[in-house]
From TrEMBL:
<dbReference type="Pfam" id="PF01546">
    <property type="entry name" value="Peptidase_M20"/>
</dbReference>
<comment type="similarity">
    <text>Belongs to the peptidase M20A family.</text>
</comment>
<keyword id="KW-0170">Cobalt</keyword>
<dbReference type="InterPro" id="IPR011650">
    <property type="entry name" value="Peptidase_M20_dimer"/>
</dbReference>
<dbReference type="GO" id="GO:0009089">
    <property type="term" value="P:lysine biosynthetic process via diaminopimelate"/>
</dbReference>
<comment type="pathway">
    <text>Amino-acid biosynthesis; L-lysine biosynthesis via DAP pathway; LL-2,6-diaminopimelate from (S)-tetrahydrodipicolinate (succinylase route): step 3/3.</text>
</comment>
<dbReference type="Pfam" id="PF07687">
    <property type="entry name" value="M20_dimer"/>
</dbReference>
<dbReference type="GO" id="GO:0009014">
    <property type="term" value="F:succinyl-diaminopimelate desuccinylase activity"/>
</dbReference>
<keyword id="KW-0862">Zinc</keyword>
<dbReference type="GO" id="GO:0046872">
    <property type="term" value="F:metal ion binding"/>
</dbReference>
<dbReference type="InterPro" id="IPR001261">
    <property type="entry name" value="ArgE/DapE_CS"/>
</dbReference>
<dbReference type="InterPro" id="IPR036264">
    <property type="entry name" value="Bact_exopeptidase_dim_dom"/>
</dbReference>
<feature type="domain" description="Peptidase M20 dimerisation">
    <location>
        <begin position="196"/>
        <end position="319"/>
    </location>
</feature>
<protein>
    <recommendedName>
        <fullName>Probable succinyl-diaminopimelate desuccinylase</fullName>
        <ecNumber>3.5.1.18</ecNumber>
    </recommendedName>
</protein>
<keyword id="KW-0378">Hydrolase</keyword>
<keyword id="KW-0479">Metal-binding</keyword>
<dbReference type="InterPro" id="IPR002933">
    <property type="entry name" value="Peptidase_M20"/>
</dbReference>
Length: 428
């Protein structure tokens, strides 16, 4: 390995490990949004010391932003020696709940062999650390570069990204006049380039009933039974229909090439009693039952069709149950997105993967959405991909980990991509 840039990254292995561990040890749990300011301040200090101009930006007024849990983001920019294009690395700093089943401290950042363990190690603090090492090594090795390098650490990707990338995009941070190339270091495996994601539609369905004494249910109307009929109709007609829908998008894993729907939650009847309550529930017929649905759809579908399928289920049940009443409330939606495989950032990263890993990059599409949706939809910036270290299947799992060698290799790919775009521009 004679390339000084790659040698510089290899020499910073210990720094990469320590940086990843430090990030994991800041428990940025979302919800509710803990320690967002702390992690942004940590990164501000690090990147400022390396010559970046930094901004800490609170997404005031965004969903979930509050005085107790403000939505903080960091954007750092390093200008080159001459004008040129900007390459932006965007990582989310929030992590999901810990969950059960851990055999290690979820926020310990424990290093064992080649693996660093902890919540967010894979998704995606390892990717954030790799992008920082890549950018710093590139700047130190090629101080004469043109254009600019940006690194952002943003809030709330795990809950939609509205307090993070969506807010920044609305403020113009992803305007194509300002930024030309975006790489999101999500954990899609180091030999894959993720071109986009499926669409998503979240909604809440509520069935209505009439409260009555539980000993005389014939005087009431049970909303839970109505919801049971909805679920039965979904099993009978909707889920078989979704299983028949298949996409040409290279979605991974294979099962996600079909349309899918998850029943995210169900709530009916009386509220759950506190854990320390030693009495019994009251005898009531439930007058309300709600489910939350998470529908993932394909680029070949349109959202009006997706909504119509749910309405058809509800109207079928209504035709069969005289007392049936319902409300359907849309929560949020995102259309599918997919960057062209010949886009400049795709070609550049593809070439870098071939150099570092001696393999042909695989193009994939994510089964779930990530912040590319806001860069595309709000920022109108199409030249965007996800590429980073980590194994997708480990995300949100107990004993989550990221491989040190995977981070090093990904950092090398990112650094070579910076050089190709800012020192040796790719020809269109």
């Amino acid at each position: 390995m004679s390339d000084p840039l790659l040698q510089t990254i290899e020499a910073r292995r210990d720094d990469l490990i320590a940086l990843t561990q430090d990030l994991i040890r800041i428990p940025t749990l979302n919800p509710p949004g803990d320690n967002y300011h702390a992690i942004c301040a940590y990164l501000d200090a690090r990147l400022s010391a390396h010559g970046f101009t930094t901004e800490m930006i609170r997404a005031q007024g965004a969903p979930a932003d509050s005085e107790t849990h403000p939505r903080w983001n960091l954007v750092a920019r390093r200008e080159g020696a001459s004008p040129g294009e900007c390459v932006h690395f965007n990582s989310h700093h929030d992590v999901v709940t810990v969950g059960e089943g851990w055999t290690r401290d979820p926020f310990g950042g424990e290093l064992e062999g080649d693996r660093i363990y902890g919540r967010g190690a894979c998704d995606m603090k390892g990717g954030l650390a790799a992008s920082i090492i890549a950018a710093e090594a590139f700047i130190d090795t090629h101080p004469e570069f043109s254009g600019a390098v940006e690194i952002s650490a943003t809030a709330d990707e795990e809950t939609g990204g509205y307090g993070g990338v969506a807010y920044l995009a609305e403020q113009g941070y992803f305007d194509p006049e300002r930024v030309q190339h975006v790489i999101i270091p999500e954990p899609l495996n180091k030999d894959r380039i993720c071109l986009g994601h499926r669409g998503v539609w979240w909604a809440e369905i509520e069935t209505k009933g009439r409260i009555a004494h539980g000993s005389m249910p014939f005087l009431g109307d049970c909303a839970v039974r109505h919801m049971g009929a909805v679920l039965e109709e979904m099993e009978r007609t909707l889920f078989p229909l979704l299983a028949l829908k298949h996409t040409d998008m290279p979605v991974v894993p294979e099962g996600a090439r079909n349309s899918t729907m998850n029943i995210n939650a169900i709530h009916g009847g009386a509220n759950e009693l506190p854990a320390d309550y030693t009495g019994f529930p009251s005898a009531c017929v439930p007058d309300s039952c709600r489910i939350t649905i998470d529908r993932r759809f394909l680029i070949e579908e349109n959202i009006d069709e997706v909504k119509a399928e749910i309405i058809a289920v509800l109207e079928t049940v209504k035709s069969q149950r005289p007392e049936f009443r319902y409300d359907l409330r849309e929560l949020w939606s995102v259309t599918p997105t997919m960057t062209d495989e010949y886009a400049p950032v795709v070609r550049t990263v593809q070439d870098a993967i071939a150099q570092v890993l001696d393999t042909q990059a695989q193009f994939v599409v994510s089964p779930g959405t990530y912040d590319q949706k806001h860069i595309d939809r709000i920022g109108r910036l199409k030249n965007c991909i996800a590429y980073g270290p980590g194994i997708l299947d480990l995300a949100h799992q107990p004993d989550e980990w990221v491989g040190v060698q995977d981070m090093l290799d990904s950092a090398k790919v990112m650094a070579l991509s910076l050089r190709a775009l800012l020192v040796e521009p790719v020809q269109a």
